[in-house]
Design a protein that fits this description.
alpha/beta; Rossmann fold; Dihydrodipicolinate Reductase, domain 2; 8-stranded mixed sheet; 6-stranded parallel sheet; 12 helices; 30% helix; Gfo/Idh/MocA-like_OxRdtase_N; Dehydrogenase; NAD(P)-bd_dom_sf
């Protein structure tokens, strides 16, 4: 049998679950005021379709009345801006209908072997991913994969049983600076200390007001980035054993969010060596969505990794590219993530951005499995954010939430079956 080359692989149909800022660029107040004014997921899928990797695109939300606005937005801000970009998609539920389970109808319209990409509130990830995997779909779910460790582990088992690709959209793994830092950090000896900070301005509390503090928190939403990067760096060498969380509050409440909404969450995590338990390390991860409105960047993002033979520092908020306008002031732009200006021929030009790459890696993996070139298990152990490779990340985030709710440290232990447990 002749195995098709990558360019000969069949395009894959894709179902996009979620119609919010990250998928479409539309927020409850209209077009996003952040750096994602046309979204990320939708425009990337449309460009992958232009390149022959994606076929039909379906999109599922909860309110069908939103889709005329989305289509008009895509027509005006995407199709008319980029050459050859077809923004057509089928939508669920129908216009005028509200259905919190419209994702089920969308998934039922896809053939087994299609791809489902989930960008919905954190509390819905597990149900949608489970539905898709059981229907024979490959799955990419935004971080956090799930809010509960047990649900993450269940998805990993289901994907393995079905032989399906299941990735978590930890796009920072594809940031060239972070990826190179990880490679260098692995050669610096035993881990000792890790500190990270990631934030977004208060305006995000307006965007996420419907679920902030109710269905999820800022640690699940932003700490997930650097917790995963740290887990990725020390994978197999150190393990987390104890999590203690602390939170600041007040700003979100004053902005009309649910009174339970924390502004800033810090996780303190004890780590121990897998080969010598006398060697220990400390991780401190802080995330906030109460940062100033005019800081010049949409997201502060930096970390410090210290080991026995050296250290690594990365600040990815300021990349040496800023624009100052009379009306809006100075802003730092991260074109390494997504580049929204067209290329010299008018085509979408973000194929090298790590936000785009994280989706293309998933789409390519699905197409290779469908063509028989690879098995889903072949993508394990390569540094990719598979559902299995990201279990420890969810364990830490889940433990942090329990620590906040129950006001106590939470232990992470390995059960007799080899699986992680929280106590």
């Amino acid at each position: 049998m002749t195995v098709p080359s990558s360019s000969q692989l069949k395009p894959i149909d894709v179902g996009l679950m979620g119609t919010g800022e990250y998928t479409t660029g539309i927020t409850p107040g209209g077009q996003s005021k952040s750096d994602k004014k046309i979204g990320v997921v939708g425009v990337t899928m449309f460009d992958l379709r232009r390149r022959g990797k994606v076929g039909s695109v379906l999109m599922a939300g909860t309110n069908g009345s939103k889709f005329p606005q989305v289509r008009e937005h895509f027509a005006r801000n995407v199709a008319s801006v980029y050459k050859g970009l077809d923004c057509d998609f089928r939508s669920f539920p129908d216009e005028g209908k509200v259905d919190a389970e419209a994702y089920k109808s969308a998934i039922s319209e896809l053939s087994p072997g299609s791809a489902v990409i989930i960008f919905t509130p954190d509390s819905t990830h597990y149900a949608i991913a489970k539905e898709a995997l059981e229907a024979g779909m490959h799955v990419l779910v935004t971080k956090p994969a799930t809010q509960k460790l047990s649900e993450h582990q269940a998805l990993a088992k289901l994907a393995e049983e079905k032989g399906l690709v299941c990735f978590v959209e930890h796009h920072k793994r594809f940031d060239p600076a972070y990826a190179d830092a990880r490679a260098r950090a692995k050669n610096l000896g035993d881990f000792g200390f890790f500190s990270s900070y990631m934030s977004q301005p208060k305006l995000q509390l307006e965007t996420f007001k419907a679920w902030a503090g109710i269905d999820s928190d800022i640690s699940y939403y932003l700490n997930s980035h650097h917790v995963d990067i740290h887990c990725w760096i020390v994978n197999g060498r150190f393990r987390p054993v104890r999590v203690t969380a602390s939170a600041a509050a007040g700003v979100a409440k004053d902005m009309g969010c649910d009174p339970r909404t924390e502004d800033t969450i810090t996780l303190l995590v004890d780590w121990v060596s897998n080969t010598d338990e006398s060697k220990r390390g400390t991780g401190v991860y802080t995330a906030s969505w109460a940062a100033p409105l005019k800081a010049g960047v949409h997201s502060e993002q930096r970390f410090h990794y210290m080991a026995s033979k050296g250290e690594v520092r990365v600040d990815q908020a300021h990349r040496g590219y800023s624009v100052t306008e009379d009306d809006t002031g100075k802003a730092d732009y991260n074109v390494s993530y997504m580049k929204y200006s067209p290329d010299e021929d008018g085509f979408f030009d973000s194929q090298k951005g790590y936000g785009y790459v994280s989706f293309e890696k998933f789409i390519d993996a699905c197409r290779r499995v469908n063509a028989g070139q690879d098995k889903a298990a072949d993508f394990e152990g390569k540094g990719l954010p598979t559902i299995q490779d990201t279990v420890v990340t969810t364990a830490i985030l889940n433990a942090g939430r329990i620590s906040l709710d129950e006001k106590r440290p939470v232990e992470i232990v390995t059960g007799k079956d080899g699986e992680l447990q929280l106590k």
